């Protein structure tokens, strides 16, 4: 009995040591990883949903802070986050000088939103030149002749137009002002297109949510936000006349139509402009959102987990369904393949390919 007891004890000890060794080997890969990102507010509703679903699937966390595209670019350059978010793509030269890789994550639309009694979703019609004149302060009343001519028979109020714009460095503003520059030579020469511009009129709100909040607060206001913010905040959006001369509503179909002819090239970080696209179904103020990552980082586990997150979001049925529900267009799988080849070829973590 003594021999059996001693033998049993030894076996128990050996079993315990084996379990400890196995736990030591397995634990690092099983430990939850926390990924940090910051930047554009344009894709934030989608990133939050992706993060929740991915955490439920893997236990890993994605902490994304919607601080605006300018803030996201600064954060990734300074190395305070694992990925930055921007709707204003960096040029190939900017990417090379900063040691960054850029790739698109989703496609969406910027929409004019209005707080105008009697005008629900799509009931007000606008075109690019009129929108530019409103933001230049040249059209100041809702019953102005230029707006009346686009809305025959509509009861437009004799009230002032109150303009709302972004106060922060914004990719949504980059898309919006690129559109206005493409349809108005006056806007192009006097204001231009950038993440921040010298606004002629109006008040500023921080982030898409700040603009939505200000428009919702006061009658007569007009602003511009990513479409999901209009839907979530229940603020009416306007119809827009596109390059083909057709009035269109914002939708997955019209955003997708605007991106149908896009050329995604890895040589320029996949940067492309989708505003004022050809086609009768195209939404005229469409754009892509981009992620920015360092070409070299020391933590392989975090970098690989980050790419696993985006790979899941690109390809998994849940991730693509999330995009559809929130009215974003998923990236075409042909583009995804090109993006992931760039991850493998250009991003190193801990001295080896991060993907």
Can you walk through the features of this model?
This protein is of the alpha/beta class. The chain has two domains: 34-108 and 287-353, 3-Layer(aba) Sandwich (D-Maltodextrin-Binding Protein, domain 2); 110-258, Periplasmic binding protein-like II (D-Maltodextrin-Binding Protein, domain 2). Helix content is 45%, strand content 19%. The protein contains 14 helices and 14 strands. It has helices at 2-30, 44-58, 69-78, 92-98, 128-136, 145-150, 171-183, 185-190, 207-217, 227-233, 252-259, 300-315, 317-325, 333-346, and strands spanning 34-39, 61-66, 83-86, 100-114, 125-126, 162-166, 203-205, 221-226, 239-241, 247-248, 286-294, 296-297, 348-349, 352-353. Strands 2-1-3-11-4-8-6-7 form an eight-stranded mixed sheet. It has a three-stranded mixed sheet with strand order 5-9-10. It has a three-stranded mixed sheet with strand order 12-13-14. Strand 9 and strand 10 form a beta hairpin. Helix 2 packs antiparallel against helix 13, helix 12 (300-315) crosses helix 13 (317-325) and helix 12 (300-315) packs antiparallel against helix 14. The longest helix is centred in the N-terminal third of the chain and has 29 residues, at 2-30.
């Amino acid at each position: 009995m003594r021999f059996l007891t001693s033998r049993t004890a030894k076996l128990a000890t050996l079993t315990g040591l084996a379990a400890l060794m196995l736990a030591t080997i397995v634990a690092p890969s099983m430990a939850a990883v926390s990924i940090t990102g910051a930047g554009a507010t344009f894709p934030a509703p989608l990133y939050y949903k992706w993060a929740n679903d991915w955490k439920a699937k893997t236990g890993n966390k994605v902490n994304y802070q919607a601080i605006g595209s300018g803030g996201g670019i600064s954060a990734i350059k300074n190395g305070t986050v694992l990925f930055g978010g921007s709707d204003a793509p960096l040029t190939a030269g900017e990417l090379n000088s900063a040691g960054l890789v850029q790739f698109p994550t989703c496609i969406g639309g910027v929409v004019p939103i209005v707080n105008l009694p009697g005008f629900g979703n799509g009931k007000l019609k606008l075109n690019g030149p009129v929108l530019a004149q409103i933001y230049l302060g040249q059209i100041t009343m809702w019953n102005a002749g230029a707006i009346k001519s686009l809305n025959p028979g509509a009861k437009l109020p004799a009230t002032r137009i109150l303009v709302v714009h972004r106060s922060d460095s914004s990719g949504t503003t980059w898309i919006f002002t690129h559109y206005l520059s493409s349809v108005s030579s006056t806007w192009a020469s006097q204001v231009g297109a950038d993440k921040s511009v010298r606004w002629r009129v109006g008040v500023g709100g921080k982030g898409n949510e700040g603009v939505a909040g200000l428009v919702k607060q006061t009658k007569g206001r007009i602003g511009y936000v990513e479409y999901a913010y209009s839907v979530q905040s229940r603020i009416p959006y306007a119809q827009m006349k596109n390059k083909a001369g057709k009035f269109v509503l914002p939708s997955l179909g019209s955003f997708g139509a605007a991106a149908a002819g896009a050329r995604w090239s890895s040589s320029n970080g996949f940067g492309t402009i989708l505003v004022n696209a050809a086609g009768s179904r195209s939404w005229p103020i469409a754009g892509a959102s981009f992620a920015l990552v360092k070409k070299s980082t020391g933590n392989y586990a975090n970098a690989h987990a980050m790419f696993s997150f985006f790979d899941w979001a690109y390809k998994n049925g849940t991730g693509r369904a999330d995009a559809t529900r929130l009215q974003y267009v998923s990236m075409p799988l042909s583009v995804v393949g090109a993006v992931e080849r760039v991850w493998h070829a250009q991003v190193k973590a801990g001295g080896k390919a991060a993907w």
